[in-house]
Design brief:
mainly alpha
Amino acid sequence: MWTRQHKKRNTGVLIVPAVAAVVMSYFGYHAFHGEYGIYAKHRLQERVAVADASLARVRGERMELERRVALLQDGSLDKDMLDEYARHALNLALPDEVVIVRPQMRN
């Protein structure tokens, strides 16, 4: 009878834990750095804060423009406002007038 003696190797014992560690590392990395990960949530919150600030600024500008347009509506036409717009658009002034140019003047 022939007998073969095999020496047991321990390499097979390490395969399953190694594969599990690699898979867990992959999913762990993407849980933090992936498109929908934890850091992406923080970046998204920063973008929302910037967009909210921009929205508040634009709403303020719009309310200011609506207020100025309301002064030019029919029935309540403000002659001073019309004169101001005409002089600003045509870049004209009378010789005896003092003109103060403001940098935030809107057309």
